[in-house]
Amino acid sequence: MPGEPSPIDVNHLNQILQSVTEPFWHRPDFWIGTALGIAGLVFSVKAFLEAKKAAVAAREAGRTVKIQTTTVDLTEFAQRLSKIQPKIRFVDARDLLDEVNRRLRRAIAPFAGDPQLKDAIGVLKKTLQAASEALAAVRPTDAAKESEAPDSVYNGVEGHFRAISDALADLVGLFEKKGFDFGEIDGQR
Amino acid sequence: MASAEEETELVGYIGDLIEVTSRGGTNWNKFNPTTFVWDISIPSHPARLVLQQVAGAALVHNKGLQSAASDSSTKYVFQAIDLTIPQGAPVLIINGADSDLLNRKLRELFNTISGKESRKGLDFLGSIIADAKRRF
């Protein structure tokens, strides 16, 4: 009859009504979307954590390289200081101490605040200061007559140079231990 | 290292030097802030004596580490140089680090020389001031 809905229309409307009134969590596509979203979030968090670990590892690798380089430098300075000879002239001793002082301070500056190294660095700085004072105490009043008192420069500074060498050896030991610690920590991760 | 007999003999010689220096019979010159040199002009046997004060490396303690230096005391080194030998090689070296007794005697000699040096400076200053007072 014209004006009355056909059975097909009614069925269609019923389907629409049912789909509107049914809770969305009963629908499988909701759970598929949710599962994909959670999986994406998990992977994002994992990627972030991995990137963070990689950054830490890279930073520590950089520090280890820096420590190894510094250790080599410190060892070289210790060797140079221990090689001074009795006939050393004042200007040569002064140039050697100036160079060692300048390069040492530059090498240890990045580690000055490190709790494991700061005591040893403090000792080293004191020995450098004492050596400078000892060198000033043997500055000849007349440089042309320096050879008149043989070995006076050597006698005055040798003990102090040895003290710097000893302090350097202590510091090198700590640097090497520190490098080893990085390896252990990395291994535990 | 000198034997006991040699050490006794050296102590005697240093004592003689202290006495002669005290009486003003020597002419020590300041070579550097911690070293005195005396050139002895004996025509037949010119010689030079050198006395140096050596400050020991300061003993620095460090937590958990060995000390960075071992010796904090002041030592004295004495050299007798024969100027008839080319290059003026030292024929005698006394290192106060080897003997406390010799180190004490050398310290006494060093202090005597330093005292004489200071006296010389003070006398010079005093004479200048006295002269200035007379003029003005």
Distance between the termini of chain B: 60 Å
Query: Using only CA atoms, what is the Rg of chain A?
Result: 37 Å
- The oligomerization state is heterodimer
Mean pLDDT of chain B: 85
Helical amount among residues of chain B, as a percent range? 40-55%
Number of H- or I-type helical stretches of chain B = 2
SSE pattern of chain A: HHHHH
Q: Biggest sheet of chain B: strands, sense, closure?
A: 5 strands, antiparallel
Number of helices of chain A: 5
Biggest β-sheet description of chain A: none
Low-confidence stretches of chain A: 183-189
Helix content of chain A: over 70%
Binned strand content of chain A: under 5%
The first-to-last residue Cα distance of chain A is: 80 Å
β-strand amount of chain B: 25-35%
Q: Give the CA-based shape of chain B.
A: globular
Give the class of chain B from helix and strand content and strand pairing. Answer: alpha+beta
Low-confidence stretches of chain B: 59-70
General description of the model:
Helices cover 77% and strands 0% of the residues of chain A. Chain A is built from five helices and no strands. Chain A has helices at residues 7-21, 28-82, 90-108, 118-136, 152-188. Chain A is rod-shaped and about 135 Å long. The N and C termini of chain A lie far apart (80 Å). Mean pLDDT of chain A is 86; it is low at 183-189. A five-stranded antiparallel β-sheet of chain B has the order 1-2-3-4-5, covered by helices on one side. Chain B is α+β, with helices and mostly antiparallel strands and 136 residues long.
